[in-house]
Design goal:
By secondary structure, this protein is of the alpha/beta class. It has 2 domains: about 290 residues, no CATH class; about 350 residues, Spore Coat Polysaccharide Biosynthesis Protein SpsA, Chain A, CATH 3.90.550. The chain has an 8-stranded mixed sheet with strand order 5-6-4-3-7-10-9-11, with helices on both faces. Strands 1-2 form a two-stranded antiparallel sheet. Strands 8-12 form a two-stranded antiparallel sheet. β3, α4 and β4 form a beta-alpha-beta unit. α5 runs antiparallel to α8. The chain is globular, with a radius of gyration of 28 Å.
């Protein structure tokens, strides 16, 4: 078929020749820097140990820089054509199952989950071909109540969305932008729908606060009687409730049009059986959906990530249904975007460079990794199918009119597939389904798919397909990155190490792309060394860099300046502000000395058998004061977490060392010491400037988000110990 009729096109990023010249010059600078470091080792007793440590840290940084170049050499963009899809297939499109996972009604409020569910039900897609499933690992009646409310409100919300073609179709997001949309609708109808949504949200929040569902509401649906006083979040029977069945002639909205299928599932939990966290929930959904809808395409999102683009499903199908390349594509990954970022990205959570640069780079090498949300899979690849050139998908697969049993019979069959003992003695979690044994099960699963011969595709439309809730406190950010870095580093240390597991199955550069994130955690060790040792050496008067008048200072200055200038260029090009980039640099430092450090330590503890895998959900809520400080871009501390002691101690250490170093230089005469110590003064000074918000939180702020006095006291103690130890 002619190229013009392809369902998608692939475009290469511009400016690659200039970038490659830049990369070559930086590589030359790094080699010169390492040559200098290796050939100028001082004598014993003159800072040799510190010098060799600097060499080791710089070797690590050099190796990691090479790894990061793998995805920047030839990144691509994809452009789907849904008009061609419509011309070729009309409404003869495959059925799609949508999976949403949630765990706790207090960390992930049902009112938030409900808006996500409603946005997914309202896609521009034949509703009889959509089935939305919620897996609730907490097994709470409160979340089921929210789903029941959603099933009623959907009868009004879906026709309203389609009548006025509104975006976004999350009612919470839509009505928060009310003034910008109201004139596009009938004002009376707009007010009526908004009032219905506000009252529904109030009812859901009231039930959550009270912790129980009123008896008169329980009588409205048989599903409420699945719960009794003995049920807990970790000990309950399997629960499957089909709230809307699109095959039921009565399952229609208030205009008489079919509604998508809506299903609630809480897989069985027993204390004596490991439930394998989100991976176990996903596998239960795969099995449960197989007896209800069995769609050939499965899409999954996190419970806080609402649909922001009505055509995301059709966009994804442009890749799967393309006649030239579609048969090779195993999954289509969308970026993870947040709608609640502060103006200047105070906690560095935007992921802009990852979304705009790195994922597109992986796409040119075999495809992006599976990031666990915003992803469309073929059902068969999640069930372990290997790629073959003659593979042909049956897009008509799915359970439609042939289903004869009643809803009750279907639910009972589905419950047996959600039992905690169902997987015993099977390949689920290994060769079939989402993989077990890691808190970032998505990365392992995507890697296995790539190693079975499938490609993946990264689609980053101008209007983001999904918008989620990003961390709004420092504690939430540190927790999220600790989980990510710990999980991906555990893959590096396991049999799934990409260089070993994917050897001969994927390109070397593709394997390196995976390790950009797999090596986040060990980056903490080199970073800790670089933010502590040069500063202590400055205080002692020991030079660890070439003199400022030496020609050997040139590669150090060049690599530092050019690398940071290019980092700024990437950030600005990806949508960050200048201040946002600076905040991102600070947060990379914070994450490396906290989240990633604890990721290393936790992996060591697991290797020694001192701890087990644990999955901690990042809270999606903050109190009113925290939210206000977040909007004002004031960093949130407020507790005595050990991570804050590390941050405060390193900030204070660099302040003391800078003051001490300047004092030594001035007392000894500028000409005597400045040449030798100037690079360390600059490094220490930049760390001090970066740490200004930490000094404010320790000594100037009076609000509840400041660094508590015990943390400041402990950090002062650690600084004194470091100074007394004379470790340089």
């Amino acid at each position: 078929m002619e190229r013009s009729m392809r369902l998608f096109e692939t475009e290469t990023h511009g400016g690659r020749a200039a970038y490659r010249l830049h990369a070559v010059t930086v590589a030359a600078g790094i080699l010169l820097l390492l040559y200098y470091r290796a050939t100028r080792v001082p004598a014993a007793g003159e800072g040799r140990a510190a010098w060799l440590g600097m060499l080791a840290a710089e070797l690590w940084y050099a190796a990691y820089w090479v790894v990061t170049q793998s995805v920047r050499w030839s990144p691509v963009r994809r452009r789907p054509f849904i008009d061609r899809l419509a011309a070729r297939h009309g409404e003869r499109l495959p059925c799609v199952d949508i999976f949403v996972c949630t765990a706790d009604p207090y960390s992930e409020p049902p009112s938030l989950v409900v808006s996500t569910i409603l946005s997914l039900m309202a896609y521009n897609y034949p509703p009889e071909k959509l089935s939305v499933y919620l897996s609730h690992d907490g097994g709470s009646i409160l979340t089921f109540y929210g789903m029941w409310e959603a099933s009623l409100f959907a009868k009004h919300w879906l026709p309203f969305c389609k009548r006025y073609n509104i975006e976004p179709r999350s009612p919470a997001a839509y009505f928060s932008e009310s003034d910008g949309h109201q004139e596009l609708c009938n004002p009376k109808e707009w007010s009526l729908i908004k009032d219905m949504f506000d009252k529904m949200t109030e009812r859901i929040d009231t039930v959550v606060m009270s912790g129980k569902v009123p008896e008169e509401i329980k009588a409205s649906h048989k599903g409420f009687y699945e719960w009794n006083q003995e049920i807990t979040s970790k000990n309950h029977q399997p629960i499957v409730q089909i709230l809307i069945d699109s095959k039921d002639q009565n399952a229609v909205d208030n205009e008489g049009k079919v509604l998508p299928t809506l299903v609630y599932m809480a897989r069985e939990k027993r204390p004596q059986h490991h439930h394998n966290f989100k991976a176990g929930a996903m596998n239960a959904l795969i099995r449960v959906s197989s007896v209800i809808s069995n769609s050939p395409i499965i899409m999954n999102v996190d419970c806080d990530m609402y649909s922001n683009n009505n055509d995301a499903v059709r966009d994804a199908l442009c890749f799967f249904l393309d006649e030239e390349m579609g048969h090779k594509i195993g999954f289509v990954q969308y970026p993870q975007n947040y709608y609640n970022l502060s103006k200047n990205n105070i906690y560095g959570n935007s992921l802009h460079v990852i979304n705009e640069v790195e994922m597109g780079g992986m796409d040119s090498l075999g495809g992006p990794m599976y990031i666990g949300t915003g992803c469309f899979h073929r059902r068969e690849i999640l069930c372990g199918r290997k790629f073959t050139e003659d593979y042909q998908e049956d897009w008509n697969a799915g359970i439609k009119d042939k289903l004869q049993e009643s809803i009750d019979e279907t639910e009972e069959k589905a419950k047996s597939l959600a039992a905690c003992t169902y997987e015993h003695g099977t390949q689920w979690g290994d060769e079939i389904g989402v993989k077990y044994g890691c808190v970032v099960e998505d990365v392992n699963t995507g890697l296995a798919i790539h190693c079975r011969g499938w490609d993946s595709v990264y689609n980053n439309p101008k209007r983001p397909a999904f918008m989620g809730v990003g961390p709004t406190t420092l504690a939430q950010t540190i927790l999220q990155h600790k989980r990510w870095s710990e999980g991906i580093f555990s893959i590096f240390l396991s049999k799934y190490n990409v260089f070993l597991f994917a050897h001969g199955k994927t390109k070397l550069r593709h394997q390196m792309g995976y390790h950009i994130y797999g090596l986040w955690a060990p980056n903490s060790l080199a970073t800790l060394y670089y933010v502590i040792i040069p500063s202590l050496a400055l205080l002692k008067g020991t030079s660890l860099f070439p003199e400022i008048t030496s020609p050997w200072i040139a590669p150090f200055v060049y690599v530092f300046c050019v690398k940071n200038m290019y980092s700024l260029y990437e950030a600005l090009l990806s949508g960050d502000t200048l201040k946002g980039w600076w905040n991102g640099q600070r947060m990379w430092l914070v994450k490396r000395i906290t989240s990633y450090l604890f990721g290393v330590l936790d992996n060591l503890r697991k290797l020694l058998g001192l701890s087990k895998i644990n999955f901690v959900v990042t809270p999606k809520v903050s109190d009113e004061d925290e939210s206000k400080r977040y909007e004002q871009e004031i960093m949130e501390f407020g507790s005595s977490d050990p991570e804050y002691v590390i941050i405060a101690a390193i900030a204070l250490l660099n302040l003391v060392c800078l003051m001490g170093g300047l004092s030594k230089v001035m007392k000894g005469g500028w000409n005597v010491h400045l040449d030798a110590l100037f690079p360390q003064l600059i490094l220490c000074g930049m760390l001090v400037i970066t740490s200004i918000p930490f000094y404010e939180a320790m000594f100037l702020r009076k609000d509840k988000g400041r660094i508590p006095f015990p943390v400041t006291l402990a950090s002062i103690g650690f600084v004194m110990l470091a100074l007394l130890a004379k470790i340089v």
